[in-house]
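Researcher: Good morning. I'm working through a list of sequences from a screen, and I'd like to move beyond sequence-only analysis. For each chain I'm collecting a predicted structure so we can compare shapes side by side. This is the next one on the list. No need for commentary yet; just the structure.
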Amino acid sequence: MSYTPVPRTAVTEPDDSSAMEVTTAAPGQACTIGPVVDIVFSRWTTPILWTLHSFGRQRFVELERQIGTITSKVLTQRLRQMERDGLVLRTYHPEVPPRVEYEISDLGRSLSPLFAVLADWSRHNLDRVEQARHDYDAGGGRRP
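Model: Good morning. Structure tokens for this chain:
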């Protein structure tokens, strides 16, 4: 999978430290962060990165146990893709029996501020989301 570089257009006012940078999406791409969302927020990538960040270097079986509901096949596939994406490091130890360990890379670790913001958002807003769902369902869903 290859991604087209996204042209950046800065929108700032002089001396305005709160200005936000706005980017223009590449042709055929509705959102400039789409490729990042595809890489980082796939079904199992986030729990794997979270686990490696929280617990450090893990052997495959340890990682599988920490996550709990993932199959060996899916964990293998996701780890390979994440290694390819540069988010995870795989270390092979030529011992008997062989030992393989996985750890979060510096690139993967650079996502920590993003996860911290999302964790903070969830602490402050998941109750509101649940309430909105309850209200929607209690009202019979969409109204004409």
